[in-house]
Amino acid sequence: MNFALHVTCAPYSKQGNLSALNFARALIEKDHRLTRVFFSSDGVHTGSQLVVCPQDEIDIPACWSELASTNNIELILCISACLKRGLLDEGEAERYEKGSANIRAPFIISGLGQLAEAAITNDRLVTFGV
């Protein structure tokens, strides 16, 4: 079965982000296919390369990056949520004349259409957040 996830909460403010990560791992372990994870609202903070996690805590953004890289999963950050929260890739930093970008690879910024497409092209879309 093909799945897509929608994550709306920041990595360390609520349980939803970590629950989504654990759910994603379980899907892969059970031989389901996870095609895309769409982060919106405060969930876009997951894609920040400026997160520094204490050594005794789970580095949730790094875990998402590793999971995506090893399993060919798209990690999409909602562009409007990113812009409001100061998260920029190289293109948006240049477009808005900002000094630098701060998006962690392999996360990419894109529009809400990616969430709609994920809902249409997958068997299930599961949302985690408030």
Give an account of the 3D structure.
This protein has one domain (2-128): Hypothetical Protein Ychn, Chain: A (3-Layer(aba) Sandwich), CATH 3.40.1260.10. It is globular and about 45 Å long. The chain contains 5 helices and 5 strands; from the N terminus they run E-H-E-H-E-H-H-E-H-E. The two termini are 26 Å apart. The chain has a 5-stranded parallel β-sheet with strand order 4-3-2-1-5, sandwiched between helices. Helix content is 36%, strand content 20%. Helix 1 runs parallel beside helix 2 (60-71). By secondary structure, the protein is of the alpha/beta class. Strand 1 (2-7), helix 1 and strand 2 (33-39) form a beta-alpha-beta unit.
Descriptive tags:
single chain; 130 residues; alpha/beta; Hypothetical Protein Ychn, Chain: A; 5-stranded parallel sheet; 5 helices; 20% strand
The number of domains:
1
Distance between the termini: 26 Å
Number of DSSP E strands: 5
Number of helices: 5
- Nearest-integer average pLDDT: 97
Q: What share of residues are in beta strands?
A: 15-25%
CATH architecture: 3-Layer(aba) Sandwich
CATH class: Alpha Beta
The general outline is globular
Low-confidence stretches: none
CATH superfamily: DsrEFH-like
Major sheet characteristics: 5 strands, parallel
